[in-house]
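ok so for the tutorial part 2 we go from a plain amino acid sequence to predicted structure tokens. step 1 is just haveing the sequence, like this:
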Amino acid sequence: MPFLKDIPVLGWLFRSSDESSRRRELMVFIRPTVLPTPESAAIAATAEKDRLPGISQAEWEIGEAERKRLEKYQHEKDKRIEQQTTRTFDRPQTDAEAAREAGRARREAERLQREQENARRELFRKEGFQE
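step 2 — the prediction. this is what the tokens look like for a chain of 131 residues:
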């Protein structure tokens, strides 16, 4: 209780008298090295990494964490797709929903057809053929 330290005679029981202050410093030493080619830089980096086993361990841990995160994402994605598919087939579509879905499918098919046609034209143009 902060106000108890202000009471005469009784205040010394509730005061803090810790005067020590510890100071920590982190020092990072950087040693620049100029290497003539990218290949020699790759060799030097590999040798330095092999000299410090903690780096290899950290890389492995990061890779494992990334792999687990991707597996979780893929699992959640598969689950969402399954739920959407199940919902679609569990209940009958209304005429309006069926019409919207048919329109979306038609537009997607037309878009794919346009992309294929453009790709064919581009290939013909690159090869020098006349349409």
